Recover the amino acids of this structure.
């Protein structure tokens, strides 16, 4: 069982697309997957055909239970999706107020880790789709994860988000005493642009050891897949973008296996 956090302190770099595409490939391989949407905007929740306004139990319920010192009920916060082998713990719009409401309350950093430990036996993989900003939800994700995937859009400004993310990781590593392994994944690579190549080379130079040495290409079919509310690897397994995520998955699985 592996818990993957997908995070970057920058918006629009393909975090949600990466989480859903890796997960979809796993379900094609008959693996049982839980998707956890930690972003108050709920793109993942919407993509998987749930609503962030609905009253269903989800991530917010867990934090409310923890704040009220009630026992957690993680199993009730998980719902089957239309896609075989894929369950969802949905986001709720109310998550946006979580930092203001609970941020300073002690003991809130491990709520998700505790909840997931009760669900582990049911799944082969769990994906935590993070919001683009540092807060109690991202802290929870990093504390619960076994491996971090950091999608980085291959354009100039994207490196700043990566630097912020790595500083956060280092800070948390110091306070917890254990370093979370991570893989940087170049995304939205457009081979017609100078910026994509420049950024990729920059990543190779500065982060070679943690860099996935390939990239996810721009593929407009991702937008169509999100419009149709289906994961692209299930809709069009042969699409360029789908195949790239299949290769990424193979490499990530090898890496996790190699490091226990
Ligand atoms: N490889 C790709 N090719 C083309 N479009 C892509 C690709 N990956 C992602 N996109 C598109 O880019 C946009 C941002 O992707 P996504 O929502 O996955 O990013 P995110 O990092 O989760 O964003 P946010 O920070 O808002 O949560 C979406 O419209 C998505 O369809
Ligand atoms: Mg997202």
């Amino acid at each position: 069982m592996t818990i993957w956090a997908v995070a970057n302190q920058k918006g629009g770099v393909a975090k949600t697309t990466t989480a859903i595409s890796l997960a979809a490939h796993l379900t094609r391989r008959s693996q049982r997957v839980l998707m956890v949407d930690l972003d108050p905007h709920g793109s993942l929740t919407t993509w998987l055909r749930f609503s962030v306004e609905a009253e269903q139990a989800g991530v917010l319920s867990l934090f409310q239970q923890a704040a009220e010192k009630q026992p957690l009920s993680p199993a009730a916060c998980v719902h089957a999706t239309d896609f075989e082998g894929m369950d969802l713990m949905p986001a709720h719009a109310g998550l946006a107020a979580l930092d203001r409401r609970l941020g300073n309350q002690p003991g809130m950093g491990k709520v998700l880790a505790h909840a997931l430990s009760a669900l582990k036996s049911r799944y082969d993989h769990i994906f935590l789709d993070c919001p683009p900003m540092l807060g109690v939800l991202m802290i929870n994700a990093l504390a619960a994860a076994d491996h971090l995937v950091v999608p980085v859009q291959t354009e100039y400004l994207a490196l700043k988000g990566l630097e912020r993310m790595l500083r956060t990781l280092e800070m948390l590593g110091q306070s917890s005493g254990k370093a979370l392994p991570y893989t940087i994944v170049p995304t939205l690579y457009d081979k017609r642009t100078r910026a994509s190549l420049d950024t990729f080379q920059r990543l190779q130079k500065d982060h070679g050891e943690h860099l996935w040495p390939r990239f996810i290409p721009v593929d407009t079919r991702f937008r169509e897949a999100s419009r149709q509310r289906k994961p692209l690897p299930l809709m069009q397994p042969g699409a360029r973008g789908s195949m790239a995520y299949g290769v990424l998955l193979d490499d990530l699985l090898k890496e996790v296996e190699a490091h226990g």
